[in-house]
């Protein structure tokens, strides 16, 4: 059996795996390569309606991923569709198994057969834990796994996610961290605190008028003669 993916231009590219697969009949005996579609108006309308519903479900999933820091719980309308969407993204999934299960769900919805769906919901808390996981520091090749985020009090990227502490202002501590200890360091390194070896040359250079790049004049005429 051969399966061909029917391209749907009005849907998103991410919906390619949800495009309806029509079964083709190939005449192996005569070697004919003609493919016959199974057209039906009612089936086409049902398929379009189901595609729209699944697209809305995926939009909800994308919205949950964007707003993942909101620890609310968004229930799915169909437990089977949720599992089918998750399994459809997994690598190595068999296409024919996915198509048969998808057709089963569509036929059950069309016939109005109630399905046993357990009361479950999609927790967003697991997404928050997944996003807040970090590995090491923000350097050493870990470009998308930062350990520090912006501090809500000082605004610097010094808030450590795992330790929940800002290294710049010590948030969430009530007392803001300051660095007044540097005043002593400045006082130690100011002018006049070092050896100042050049000061012993100042009186000698004062006698010659602080000349630079010139030769000394002879002190008396006898020495010059």
The gyration radius over C-alpha positions equals: 39 Å
Parts with pLDDT < 50 across at least 5 consecutive residues: 1-30, 32-38, 69-77, 118-124
Coarse shape:
rod-shaped
The residue fraction in helices comes out at 25-40%
Distance between the termini: 120 Å
What is the domain tally?
A: 2
Query: How many DSSP H or I helices?
Result: 7
Which structural class fits the helix and strand makeup? mainly alpha
Mean pLDDT: 67
Major sheet size, sense and barrel closure: 3 strands, antiparallel
Per DSSP E runs of 2 or more residues, the count of β-strands stands at 7
Strand arrangement within the widest β-sheet reads 5-6-7
- Percent strand: 5-15%
The helix/strand series, from N terminus to C terminus, equals EEHEHHEHEEEHHH
InterPro entries: Ribosomal_eL37, Ribosomal_eL37/eL43, Ribosomal_eL37_CS, Ribosomal_zn-bd
Organism: Brassica napus (Rape)
GO molecular function, one term: rRNA binding
Keywords: Metal-binding, Ribonucleoprotein, Ribosomal protein, RNA-binding, rRNA-binding, Zinc, Zinc-finger
Question: What would a concise description of this structure say?
Answer:
Keywords: Metal-binding, Ribonucleoprotein, Ribosomal protein, RNA-binding, rRNA-binding, Zinc, Zinc-finger. With 225 residues, the chain is mainly alpha-helical.
